[in-house]
Each structure stands twice: as C-alpha cells, then as structure tokens.
Amino acid sequence: MKLLIVDDEAEICDFLKSFFEERNYDVRVASSGQSALKAVEEFKPQVMLLDIKMPGMDGIQVLSEVKKKFPRTKVIMVTALETRDKIEECLRLGADNYITKPLSLEYLENDVREKLESLSGSNTP
Ligand SMILES: [Mg+2]
Q1: 26 C-alpha vs ligand 1 centroid, how far in Å?
Q2: Cys bridge to 98: 77, 93, 104, 107, which one at CB 3.0-4.6 A?
Q3: Residue 36 has what DSSP assignment?
Q4: Which long-range contacts (CB under 8 A, 24 or more apart) does 108-113 make?
C-alpha cells in the first residue's frame, strides 16, 4: 500500500506521514511539484494526496502530468481555500476526489482505503 503525500508545508507532511504509517501504509512525502513527479516515477504510489497550492509547480500541474504518465494512480487533491473553478479543473484533469483543509483524518483514511480497494478490484496480476 504505497501512499505519496505532497504538500509544501512540512508539518502537514509529517503529520499525515505518521498518521498513515501507524496504519501500516508505505509512505513517502514530497514538498514540491518537481520532487513529487520524481517520487511518482521512482516510488510508483497507488494513491497520492496532492496539495493544490504550492510555490512553483502547483498541484494542478502535477496532477495533469501524473494522469498522463500514470493514469492508474489515484489522486486525492488537498485544498485550503481554493475556488470551485480550481476544484472543477482538477476533476476534469482526472482527480479522483478532493478534501478540504482543515483535514478530517477519518474521512481521508476512508477515502484512501476506498481508492486502494477500487484499484485491487481491477488489478491484473
Ligand atoms: Mg500548500
């Protein structure tokens, strides 16, 4: 169960990393769009939590690249005060869901699990 967490705020990465590691996920974090793309290539996560607002390459650009190269990777967008327009753009680009900050960890965990289950259901050996 490989999960990649992408957020430019280190505290959010640390917090989510320990939360999911306690639940036996194999977690990596990235703090920028560029390093997120690198991590996707190397780590090949099944699910990704992706912050929209980051300096430089933002989450929307990362989403678009990831869905082009690795369409099976499930991407859950993490947003603070994004506009409806941005969220709709993400969904159009193939985002699998979105969650707003402040984060509800229970909701987030359920969603991650659900995305993983939908993957294993359609897995080829
Ligand atoms: Mg941010």
Answers
A1: 22
A2: 77
A3: H
A4: 108/16, 108/49, 108/76, 109/19, 109/20, 109/23, 111/76, 112/3, 112/20, 112/25, 112/47, 112/49, 112/76
- Dump pLDDT digits (tens) for 94-104: 999 999 888 88
123 C-alpha to center of ligand 1: Å? 32
Please tell me the pTM assigned to this model. Answer: 0.88
Q: Is residue 1 within 8 Å of residue 46, measured between CB atoms?
A: yes
Centre of ligand 1 from the C-alpha of residue 32, in Å:
9
- Model pLDDT for residues 28-63, shown as the tens digit of each residue: 999 999 999 999 999 999 999 999 999 999 999 999
The sign one gets for the Cα dihedral 118, 89, 39, 102 is negative
**Cα–ligand 1 centroid distance for 111 (angstroms):** 20
Q: How far, in Å, is the centroid of ligand 1 from the Cα of 97?
A: 17
- Chosen CATH of 2-116 out of 3.40.605.10, 3.40.1190.20, 2.60.40.2150, 3.40.50.2300: 3.40.50.2300
